[in-house]
Amino acid sequence: MYVCLCEGVTDGQIREAIYEGCCSYRDVRQTLGVASQCGKCACLAKQVVRETLSDVQNSQSALAYPATFVAA
Q1: CATH number of the domain bearing residue 25
Q2: 31 by DSSP, 3-state: which?
Q3: Cα Rg, the chain, nearest whole Å
Q4: Would you place residue 70 in the very low, low, confident or very high pLDDT band (cuts 50, 70, 90)?
Q5: From the centroid of its chain, how far is CA 16?
Q6: pTM for the full model?
Q7: Cβ of 18: how many Cβ atoms within 10 Å?
Q8: Number of separate domains in the chain
């Protein structure tokens, strides 16, 4: 789905930018130019960034298994 019509940025592109290292809305905005023209897409773009960062954080915490050792 297109998030920013002015720059032609989709939600997939925003997610991909986060997967490739963007860590904030500011990073995404600088990388993709989202919300740099009319600004009407800023709320939706921020929502996509928040949801994606949350998903990334949750998936990383699910992978981190605490090591437990049992004395033999």
Answers
A1: 1.10.10.1100
A2: helix
A3: 17
A4: low
A5: 7
A6: 0.83
A7: 22
A8: 1
Q: Rounded CA gap, 55 and 57, in Å?
A: 5
* DSSP single-letter state for residue 4: E
Q: Is residue 71 part of a domain?
A: no
pLDDT above 90 (res 61): no
* 27 is a domain residue: yes
| Alpha-carbon span 33 to 28, nearest angstrom | 8
Q: What pLDDT does residue 58 have?
A: 86
Report the chain's mean pLDDT, rounded to a whole number.
Answer: 89
Any domain includes 45: yes
Residue 34 lies in a domain: yes
**Domain boundaries, position 7:** 2-63
